[in-house]
Amino acid sequence: MYKSGVKDYKQFSKDALKLSNNLPISFEVFSDDLKEMETEGRIINSWGGNSYIKIPITNTKGESTKEVIQKLTNDSIKVNVTAIFTLEQVENIINYFDESTPAILSVFAGRIADSGMDPMEIMKKSSEMISDKKNLELLWASTREVLNIFQAEESKSDIITVPPDILDKTNLLNKNLNDFSLETVQNFFDDAKNANFKIKK
Fold it and tell me: For the stretch 102-134, what's the b/e string if a residue is b when 16 or more beta carbons lie within 10 angstroms of its beta carbon?
């Protein structure tokens, strides 16, 4: 939103909720103080619509937000717990959700992969850990490539966030790889030609 030049977060959020046709949208809190996070979450919830309050798994001091999660969900306020990277983090919060309030756990599979680790085990085990919590949904966050869509399905993630540039690449699904190879060679040739590169003797 900052990059898009949004100046009024409240008005932007209210407008988005009106256009959403009651589809769920997550809006983040900004405070690093746990009590203020709760207050901000309640304010956002008062804007109406099918909103989820995006709460980080910890604040910048590493303090768990589990009590914020507990207080909000006990009052039927839906949350999206974000920036989850480890199974320990999942385990530490799963019993702090009110069982009658829908909630989302956003595990940053893409960033886990950026660290050189395969996120599949974490995603699969996270799914298993919350399988008996009917109000909880697992979200595959920070998608990096089209393959992640299929990995999310395999790991039994309930939701995946897919940015437009990745979504555009789905038109390549099941593309003939020989044709794809030839097109790539043509792209290389065209790039060199357009750059007027030549290798002289």
Answer: bbbbbbbbbebbeeeeebeebbbebbebbeeee
Task: Output the CA–CA distances (angstroms, integers) from residue 19 to 15, 61, 71, in the order listed.
Answer: 6, 36, 29
CATH number at residue 135: 3.20.20.70
Has residue 3 got a pLDDT over 80?
no
Specify the pLDDT at position 178. Answer: 98
**Number of separate domains in the chain:** 1
Q: In whole angstroms, what is the distance from residue 101 CA to residue 103 CA?
A: 6
pLDDT tens digits for range 40-70:
999 999 999 999 999 999 999 999 999 999 9
Structural domain range at position 68:
9-164
CA distance 121 to 139: 14
pLDDT of 136-188, one tens digit each?
A: 999 999 999 999 999 999 999 999 999 999 999 999 999 999 999 999 999 99
What angle is formed at CA 81 by the lines to CA 77 and CA 83, rounded to 5 degrees? 160
CA distance linking residue 68 with residue 46, whole number of Å: 17
